[in-house]
Predict the 3D structure of the following.
Amino acid sequence: MKILAIETSCDETAISILEATGTKKNPVFRVLGNTVLSQISTHRPFGGVVPNLAMREHQKNLVPILEHTLKEAHMLTRVTKNITVNKKQKASGARLEKTLEKILVREPILLESAQKFFKKYLPPDIDAIAVTYGPGLEPALWVGVNFAKALSTMWGKPIIPTNHLEGHIYASWLSEGKPPEFPLLALIVSGGHTELLLVKNHLRYMRLGETRDDAIGEAFDKVAKMLGLGYPGGPEISKIAEHGKSDAFDFPRPMIHSGDFDFSYSGLKTSVLYTLQDLEPARKTKKRSSVAPIKISTKRKADIAASFQQAAVDVLIKKSAQALKKYKPKSFVVGGGVIANKKLRSSLETLVHKLFPETTLYLAPLWLTGDNAAMIAAAAFFRGIPKKKVSGLSANGGLKLS
Ligand code: KG4
Ligand code: ZN
């Protein structure tokens, strides 16, 4: 089957077309087309994602990205002119136009480009449309959900509503080689989530623990901001951390000995802030001190970044080790933006290699660590086409895995 997937949960607009053959146990995936457009440059001046800007950018970008992806998959076929249309076809065309206007009434920019698109191109040979409907920024999610509804109506194809976090887990099915096996331990580390889950079979989740405050990616982003680095902060911190000493500062490892599988990253972030204030007392009195330009040396910054990164990674390693020991899973799957971090990748590899050699580790391939639609299509393949037609699908910013 061929799935066209749409992802707009945050600041990446992404569309992918995935071909899946074989069985669910032994699927063979082929990415026919894949486009990710990052909005980083739009949000950078604000130091973080601005939901309304994200919504506008998704509206502007979806149709050009769709064209690009269909072209890459050799599925972009122009309507041939001079087709004779009978009265009945004309009436049904007009009805569809009206429905399209209704679906995209809150996305006027998208409506305009979508109307042109549907006049210009024929429906592609796909079986379903997958779309991320949560979790994420609701205004951003809505654009993707409504676009999926528009495509579904105009092309007559079913929708597979898909959970973004499920996508981060299923990214590992797109790695080369043998697919992960159940039961598996899943760790999701992203800008909005830090979760450990036991997955007994496809789509059967038991949440072992999650963050009680900030997500790990959020902590990276906030610490980067304190250090005067760019947005998003994760890649910036990991870059400068390579030149720093990871034991230069003794930052706390919150909840490392809590005995459960929960996390907390807000105390670690605050500890970095206090350290910076000690190093540069003037920051204490400055308004908006966390965003004021920082005056400490590059070497010190690198030491702080490396020490923070080490503390953040140590907690993940400890909790993962605890869960691997307790549940003895066949596979350990790690996904989400933060798994692009080199230190985290190598620490997880060492942990599994040395202490849990009977478990196979799957780190999302680097092209699938950040948000993308290929992982959404993979997750949708395992969900399958719903038995009943999806009607009234809503975006759900706080959607959980269940
Ligand atoms: O999965 P993702 O792209 O979006 C969400 O679903 O949230 O994750 C984005 C997060 C951001 O917080 C970003 O700073 C972080 O992933 N990130 C990293 C690295 N690359 C991206 N964090 C640490 N090290 C990295 N190399
Ligand atoms: Zn994500």
